[in-house]
Design goal:
Length: about 210
């Protein structure tokens, strides 16, 4: 049986919730003398695995390790490749207007950008496109490469990564999705996009586990 390995702070959070349930995230942060943002990923992991139960406007409750272990087993067995979706990709010389059209027709929150060699070179979000449209830029002429977040500042995942690890990246960096990539071991500048892992993919996984 696979047991979830919790870090010391997560174990401390469990103890705090046991002693003070229901308790808000702000109060947990105050007890640990850290910011609420610092605890975001820890609380997400503990609630997604079922160890804690979160109720809006009430706070966190302790659910029990036994039930969480069963859920954790199912999650631990999942790799990124099992739940990733097809990525939406455009070239870096695509103009901003066409990028906006692509994003909304594809109904995604971010688009991955590739260079002429089809290697990942950046990412653009809805927020990036909104800023461009309300600015002075000519969106019919300016290439998307001018406003994208460039590698190596793009957070990525490997298809063999555990879903929990990839989920933690999404939560910690507060992004909608991350590209799933294959990196050439002989030339690390060659980064091919093979998938997309989003909050929607993760939500569907937990719903699937709950339904079963």
């Amino acid at each position: 049986m696979t047991i979830i390995q919790l870090n010391p702070r997560q174990l401390k959070i469990i103890d705090i919730v046991k002693e003070n349930e229901p308790i808000t995230g702000e109060n947990i942060a105050s007890i640990l003398n850290v910011t609420r943002a610092t605890l975001r990923s820890d609380l997400a992991i503990l609630t997604m695995t079922g160890i804690l139960d979160a109720r809006p406007k009430v706070g966190y409750f302790y659910s029990g390790i036994t039930g969480a272990t069963l859920v954790g087993n199912k999650i631990k067995d999942k790799k990124v490749k099992d739940i990733m979706s097809v990525p939406v990709i455009i070239k870096q010389d695509t103009n901003i207007y066409d990028s906006i059209v692509t994003m909304f027709l594809s109904d995604v929150g971010s688009i991955f950008i590739i260079d002429d060699s089809e290697n990942l070179c950046g990412i653009v979000s809805r927020k990036d496109l909104l800023k461009a449209t309300i600015g002075s830029a000519d969106i019919n002429k300016m290439p998307i490469g001018m406003i994208m977040t460039r590698t190596p500042n793009v957070i990525t995942a490997n298809k063999e990564d555990d879903v929990i690890l990839a989920t933690k990246k999404i939560i910690e960096h507060e992004v909608d999705s991350i590209p799933v990539v294959e990196i050439n071991k002989e030339d690390t500048n060659q980064i091919k996009v093979i998938g997309r892992l989003s909050k929607t993919n993760i939500t569907k996984l937990f719903l699937e586990i709950a339904d079963n």
